[in-house]
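Go through the following before class.
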Amino acid sequence: MPFVETLSWMIFSGLLVWAALSDGRTLTIPNRLCLAVALLYLARLPVVGPTEWAFGVLIGLVGLSVGFLAFDRGLIGGGDAKLVAAVLPWAGSAHAGTFLIVTALAGGVLALLMLARYRGPALLRGLTGQALLYAPKGSTETDAPGLPYGIAIATGGLWVAVKAVIDVASFL
């Protein structure tokens, strides 16, 4: 794997970890982070060739359009829409479907964990008549935060990075 490609995948992975940590702590993904992921894709042009690179840009634009539509309907946050659009070109034609599936599965697991943490006490009280678990200190059972979906998007993107490195290593 050429040095530039290896370095770009490493930086890409680091940016995704940063996005996951940021979204997990503050429910925001900085615009500069999404822009950095998107601009770093420029380094992939010599590696993937113009056709695959252009397809990546196209799929990123489609992802941005769908993401903004979902944002407009209140289904996801704006940072989530931009991060998906920035990661999709990296997935390319070979891994775009896998990226979306892994992201959706990671999002489902994340949603179940959040549900158990914030709604679990109310669900158990309804079943047993008494609280068996307690909500986190300072919150109520209905005081659940939004879902930090950037964690799921980062998981899908990191899966793509690992898969891409394995695919390239198998050709050596």
Observations:
- Confidence is low (pLDDT under 50) at residues 130-136.
